């Protein structure tokens, strides 16, 4: 009986920690609104966008990048190969919006096993301004994109980031990706920031260029296979903070397959494992699997109905996630809870995969990530 009580308490503790993370995250998150353009003198900004391939929303994300409410900014698009099909779309957008200074740079600087970072080097070095944003090509920038990033910068800040918020899912597996990105990964990242454990996210990164250049420049981000992990460690060593924007930016998803989600999540798990192993180890306790199994074991010991127990645990786990998503204006649908259940069935396998070596796919590049934070590229790298 004592063991049954302990198991029940462990299940309760995990459910309470899940709820606490939602409360903490909600404190730092705001529903998306609109920040007015700066009324006074605003510093000019360089936005470096590494690109590779054409996606369903490429034309829209390009148009958004040229339509920002910031007085002075330049766009620097980077592709590794001149024959990439996205080149034609970028050139068309540059011609369509001639009032926004924009350039397309082609080439691949092999400074690391990270193909995205290699693609960014030339853009960073060509940036004309002291404030530089590294932005993935699939970020759907709102008009106040720069204002949001700048508003999060304060004393002691070394970097401002935004986690991606999945939107416009088309099909069940895209709903599962939303369940990964929004109420799970974004929630834990904002909860970590609330606890003073902020870490970088490579989707949108606002840098003070002189500061980073004084500490090794963009090449310093090659110290780890993931540039956001390298950024986190660099800034921790300098005693600077990573801040998150109050309203994270959208990433429209479109269609997704199970294989695409597995590949992406397995890669991220492997990267987290080799860069921050002590933080990765307890990830097995996130999601509903651990508290559900413990609750069912305790219920069997107490003679409580297993179906009723399961429904109770699922309600306590998923309803707060849905409330968080609704409060912040994130995607919700009738498939959200089934998608969360599919996500949580995948999490233990993804966590286990994170501890194994072997090849993973990174936007068409086959990579072998070793037990330390390095990787071998087995194909010619390109893109973000």
UniProtKB/TrEMBL annotation:
Q: Which UniProt keywords apply?
A: Glycosyltransferase, Membrane, Transferase, Transmembrane, Transmembrane helix
Annotated GO molecular function terms are: ceramide glucosyltransferase activity
Tell me where the transmembrane regions lie.
292-319
Top-level taxonomy:
Bacteria, Pseudomonadati, Pseudomonadota, Alphaproteobacteria, Hyphomicrobiales
Cited Pfam families: Glyco_transf_21 (PF13506)
Report the superkingdom from the record.
Bacteria
Q: What is its main location?
A: membrane
List the CDD domains: Glucosylceramide_synthase (cd02520)
Task: Tell me the compartments it is located in.
Answer: Membrane
Q: Does the keyword NADP apply?
A: no
Gene Ontology CC terms = membrane
Give the protein's recorded name. Answer: Ceramide glucosyltransferase
Associated pathway: Lipid metabolism; sphingolipid metabolism; Sphingolipid metabolism
Q: How does the record say this protein sits in the membrane?
A: Multi-pass membrane protein
Could you tell me the Gene Ontology terms of the biological process aspect for this record?
glucosylceramide biosynthetic process
């Amino acid at each position: 009986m004592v063991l049954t009580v302990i198991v029940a308490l462990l299940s309760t503790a995990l459910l309470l920690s899940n709820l606490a993370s939602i409360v903490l995250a909600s404190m730092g998150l705001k529903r998306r609104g609109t920040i007015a353009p700066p009324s006074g003198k605003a510093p000019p900004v360089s936005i470096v966008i590494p690109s590779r391939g054409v996606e369903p929303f490429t034309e829209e994300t390009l148009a958004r990048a040229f339509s920002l409410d910031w007085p002075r900014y330049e766009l620097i698009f980077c592709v590794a190969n001149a024959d990439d099909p996205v080149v034609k779309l970028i050139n068309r957008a540059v011609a369509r919006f001639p009032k926004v200074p924009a350039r397309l740079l082609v080439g691949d600087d092999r400074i690391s096993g990270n193909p995205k970072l290699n693609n960014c080097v030339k853009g960073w070095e060509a940036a004309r301004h002291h404030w530089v944003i590294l932005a993935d090509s699939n970020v759907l920038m709102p008009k106040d994109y720069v204002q949001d990033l700048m508003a999060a910068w304060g004393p002691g800040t070394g970097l401002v980031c935004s986690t991606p918020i999945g939107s416009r899912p088309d099909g069940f597996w895209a709903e599962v990706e939303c369940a990964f990105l929004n109420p799970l990964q974004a929630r834990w990242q904002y909860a970590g920031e609330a606890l003073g454990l902020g870490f970088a996210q490579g989707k949108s990164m606002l840098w003070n260029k002189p500061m980073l250049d004084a500490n090794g420049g963009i090449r310093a981000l090659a110290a780890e296979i993931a540039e956001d992990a390298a950024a986190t460690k660099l800034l921790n060593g300098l005693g600077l903070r990573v801040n998150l924007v109050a309203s994270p930016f959208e990433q429209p998803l479109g269609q997704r397959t199970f294989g695409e989600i597995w590949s992406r999540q397995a890669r991220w798990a492997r990267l987290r494992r080799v860069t921050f192993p002590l933080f990765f180890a307890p990830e097995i306790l996130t999601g509903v699997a651990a508290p559900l199994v413990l609750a069912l074991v305790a219920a069997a010991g107490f003679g409580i109905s297993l179906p009723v127990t399961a429904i109770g645990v699922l309600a306590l786990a998923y309803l707060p996630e849905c409330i968080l998503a609704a409060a912040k204006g994130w995607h919700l649908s009738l498939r959200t809870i089934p998608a969360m259940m599919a996500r949580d069935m995948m999490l233990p396998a993804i966590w286990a995969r994170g501890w194994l070596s072997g090849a993973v796919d990174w936007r068409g590049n086959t990579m072998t990530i070793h037990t330390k934070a390095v990787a071998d590229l087995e194909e010619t790298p390109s893109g973000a």
